[in-house]
Amino acid sequence: MAPAGTGGLDVAGLQRRLAEFAAAREWEPYHTPKNLAVALSVEAAELMEIFQWLTPEQSARVMEDEESAHRVKDEVADVLAYLLQFCEVLGIDALAALSAKIDRNESRFPAKKGQVRHSME
């Protein structure tokens, strides 16, 4: 089942939507791996810019302010959009790639017994 707020779309559905959006504007010639990687980097930098001069405490509260929360969500959407388009152009299954990377990291960085786990709360 797709997460709430996605209009019932999954990753493949969102990639189709992005491809249709680009096709309707005749942008496909510009959606090369190089251009999409550069655009992804630019959007990630725009996300970083929001946090640039914040203290750790301020950055933890960034979503409490409506305007900054909106900016963060927009930049996250831009980063994800370019990442999904990049994966589509190169035939990468983003979720499979992430799962494989987690598997490799679990082998590379085994948890120590009694190690404190950090929560994402």
Structure, briefly:
With 121 residues, the protein is mainly alpha-helical.
What does it look like?
The protein is mainly alpha-helical and 121 residues long. 64% of the residues lie in helices and 0% in strands. The protein has helices at 11-24, 33-51, 56-60, 66-90, 94-108. Helix 1 (11-24) crosses helix 4 and helix 2 (33-51) packs antiparallel against helix 4 (66-90). The mean pLDDT is 91.
Radius of gyration: 18 Å
Largest sheet: none
Residue-averaged pLDDT: 91
| Structural class designation | mainly alpha
- Terminal-residue CA separation: 23 Å
How would you spell out the order of helices and strands? Answer: HHHHH
Bin the helical content: 55-70%
Strand content: under 5%
Low-confidence stretches: none
Note the overall shape: globular
Extended strand count: 0
- SS element count, helices: 5
List the helices and strands and how they pair.
Elements: H1 11-24, H2 33-51, H3 56-60, H4 66-90, H5 94-108
Helix pairs in contact: 1-4, 2-4
Key structural traits:
121 residues, mainly alpha, 5 helices
